[in-house]
Task: structure prediction
Amino acid sequence: MTAKIIDGKAIAQKLRERLKREVDDLKEKGITPGLAVILVGEDPASLTYVRNKRKACREIGIRSFLFSLPETVSEGELVRKIEELNGDEQVHGILVQLPLPSHVNPANILPRIHPMKDVDGFHPLNAGKLMAGEKTFIPCTPLGISVLLKEIGCRVEGKHAVVVGRSNIVGKPAGQLLLNMNATVTYCHSKTADLQKFTSMADILIVACGKPNLIGAGHVKEGAVVIDVGINRDESGRLTGDVNFEEVKEKAGFITPVPGGVGPMTITMLLSNTIQAAKQIHRLPWP
Ligand SMILES: Nc1nc2c(c(=O)[nH]1)N[C@@H](CN(C=O)c1ccc(C(=O)N[C@@H](CCC(=O)O)C(=O)O)cc1)CN2
Result:
């Protein structure tokens, strides 16, 4: 079997056109959604993601505000900036670009974002709501994955989803979201013994562990949906995922490429969450 390639870039583009219309509607009501991005330090990948986030905001009419803080910023200074933005009426969504420098503990920072402005969905209250199956902000990458699955007509209910990776940003919320969609979910991670035993049972395999080419054809069930969240750069600077694309595409039913798979959806879901935040703050219906 040769897999169908999931074109995340095209799907993201189509969704952004719809989101632009939602922003236009809000503007007619006198509301311009606003996103504040806090960037600490100058990590090259983070600089790229933040630049792309702001460009995406601009393209659909969301106002974006960038706060670049030095690598040496203290936790206290960061919290003060967040508190200022919590009270800013032009700002509907706040995100702190991750990773943070090692002297800053995200657990001391992310809970200080007002839960109604937490468009990354990392606040413990919103993470708890996701766990309880309540309506909330869902972290952007897992939300993007669920949209991709819907777009390819993948019915999640009753399927066995295996998630490789247990980060708070992707692995844990992705598994939780699929569980809420009635999948049977298995989490695997760096300490899992016999990874292949689990991954080869997956109808839906989500790989988010940051290990280039960890997943080969032998890890995958014939016809499975394989979602590669890995973003790794090889020696020549070329992007690769956690899945050996050339090998696995000959066995899977569907597969996301890197780049052009999940990545563009992450930013699109950030736009969507920011629009939802603006609606929620202004007490408009939030579908
Ligand atoms: N506060 C947050 N920090 C981080 C998040 C997040 O959701 N919130 N996720 C990642 C990085 N990230 C967004 O911030 C992100 C990663 C990748 C892409 C993307 O579009 N990837 C492209 C390739 C881009 C490239 O050339 O490097 C692709 O896969 O096609 C967007 C956003 C960690 N931090």
The radius of gyration is 19 Å. The chain is about 40% helix and 15% strand. Residues 8-28 form the longest helix (21 residues). Residues 48-49, 95-98, 120, 140-141, 169, 231, 239, 258-260, 263-264, 266-267 surround LMY7XDAE (CB under 6 Å).
